Automatic annotation (TrEMBL):
Gene: LOC102599441
One Pfam family here: IFRD
Stretches with biased composition (Low complexity): 21-30
Domain Interferon-related developmental regulator C-terminal: start-end pairs: 374-427
Name of protein: Interferon-related developmental regulator N-terminal domain-containing protein
SUPFAM superfamilies named among the record's database cross-references: ARM repeat
PANTHER family registered for this protein in UniProt: INTERFERON-RELATED DEVELOPMENTAL REGULATOR, INTERFERON-RELATED DEVELOPMENTAL REGULATOR 2-LIKE ISOFORM X1
Length: 440
């Protein structure tokens, strides 16, 4: 087990398209200030204040430099004091950039808002960030002219909902906004241009990241009917990143359960059949979908390299789909680990693996710093960094290592608990209309 954490989504966060060239006398001063950031050692809070001031400037390139500096500051240190004092101001300036900026500025501002939410952590500030940002992000998503801009907007929406969402309805609202980017028929005012592979990958990854926070029983079935079939169709696409994102999402859907909410085709309510007949038909439909997905996953787990196929990408796909196949056939999720300050951050479910990969991708070089000092992320992953441990626990003895790998380890217990839960859910479903012994 524990072969590796899937690495995906290679889309760049930024592009170089900037058409805003308006100048002013004060802009020159801001440019000089920002260019000097690399040479002069300012007080950290002063630098951030100067960057915020620069976001008022007319020249787009000046605002872009300021946003890039803010991202660097939030990645290198957890800016709790700055967020406490200036989060509302910074949020409104970033939303202004999303409304009026170039693709590059929109991407940078989106990333800052995500970092702002992660730094604030759950609570009133994060919820305000979500409430204030949903509409501007929704409007910006309807103009799908640039993949990097759309990817950054989607990641921002995912992060601020993950941190600031207070109830399932808010999370599903964000998931629907994402869904409409690749399924415009669900949104009457959404552009109908065919989404690119990079856009599809970004949507699927962001959508599945939010699904990790949802209880299958609370999902509104009207929102996600036919989604298993949609993801299954993505497994046949040429783009490997699309296939991997769709495969991991399908694994998560099966892990979440409540498959009837993802499987139906919304055929209407005019059927006069009895509930028993409808349930039997639904079960057969789910079994058929599962069998189709299983065959697709088995094929992709053993795919031979084609002409021009990059060996690293091919191996990544094979490993990912071998993990998915093992999960679908035997119920074992991949166990992965990452070393943070000498301690292991481990995952043993698809939900945690998807969360880990998404946050690593979003935070980039700031991931280790945030995992060491961001209490919200400690709670998400159940991770306690070294500085918060008693001195006696800073070193892991050989005995502890053997215990960690034993059948009674935390990871193995978590996996056993999950499998037991799946069996109980299956047994509950069997009562009334499920055939004995069918576990989906």
């Amino acid at each position: 087990m524990g072969r590796r954490s899937s690495q995906r989504r290679n889309a760049a966060m930024l592009d170089s398209d900037d058409t805003d060239s308006v100048s002013s006398s004060s802009t020159t001063r801001s440019d000089m200030m920002l260019s000097g950031l690399e040479e002069v050692q300012f007080d950290k809070e002063t630098v951030l204040d100067q960057c915020v001031d620069a976001l008022y400037e007319k020249r787009g390139s000046t605002r872009e430099k300021a946003l890039a500096s803010i991202i660097e500051a939030f990645n290198s240190n957890i800016q709790h004091e700055f967020v406490e004092k200036k989060f509302a101001t910074l949020l409104q300036l970033c939303l202004s950039s999303i409304r009026r900026g170039s693709s590059k500025e929109i991407a940078l501002a989106s990333h800052v808002i995500g970092l702002l939410s992660l730094t604030a952590g759950p609570g009133d500030k994060a919820h305000e960030i979500l409430e204030e940002s949903v509409k501007p992000i929704s409007v910006a998503l309807k103009s799908r002219s640039d993949n990097s801009k759309i990817s950054s907007l989607l990641e921002c929406l995912a992060i601020i909902t993950f941190v600031g969402g207070k109830d399932p309805e808010e999370t599903e609202e964000s998931m629907q906004l994402m869904w409409q980017v690749i399924n415009p028929k669900l949104g009457p005012n959404v552009a109908t241009a065919k989404p690119s592979p990079a856009m599809i990958t970004a949507v699927v990854s962001s959508w599945s990241f939010l699904l990790t926070t949802m209880d299958g029983w609370t999902l509104n079935p009207k929102n996600w009917q036919g989604s298993i079939s949609y993801f299954s169709n993505l497994l046949d696409k040429e783009d490997r990143s699309v296939r991997i994102a769709a495969g991991e999402t399908l694994a998560l859907v099966f892990e979440v359960g409540s498959l009837e909410k993802f499987s139906g085709e919304s055929k209407g309510s005019g059927d006069s059949s009895t509930d028993e007949t409808n349930k039997s038909r639904e079960l057969l439909h789910i079994q058929g979908l599962r069998a189709k997905v299983l065959n697709q996953v088995r094929t992709l787990s053993a795919e031979a390299g084609g002409k021009g196929s990059a060996k690293k990408d091919l191996n990544n796909q094979r490993n990912t789909f071998r993990d998915i196949l093992e999960f679908l056939e035997d119920g074992y999720s991949p166990e992965t680990s990452a070393k943070i300050g000498g301690l292991l951050l481990s995952t043993s479910t698809w939900a945690n693996l998807i969360q880990l990969n998404f946050l690593k991708h979003f935070l980039g070089g700031g991931f280790v710093k945030h995992m060491q000092e961001n209490e919200f992320l400690h709670d998400v992953f159940g991770f306690t960094p070294k500085k918060n441990l008693p001195a006696s626990q800073h070193r892991v003895s050989g005995t502890d290592k053997r215990m960690y790998k034993s059948p009674n380890s935390i990871l193995n217990k978590a996996r056993t608990q999950f499998l037991n839960k799946q069996r109980m859910l299956s047994q509950d479903k069997n009562v009334g209309y499920y055939a004995g012994g069918d576990e989906l």
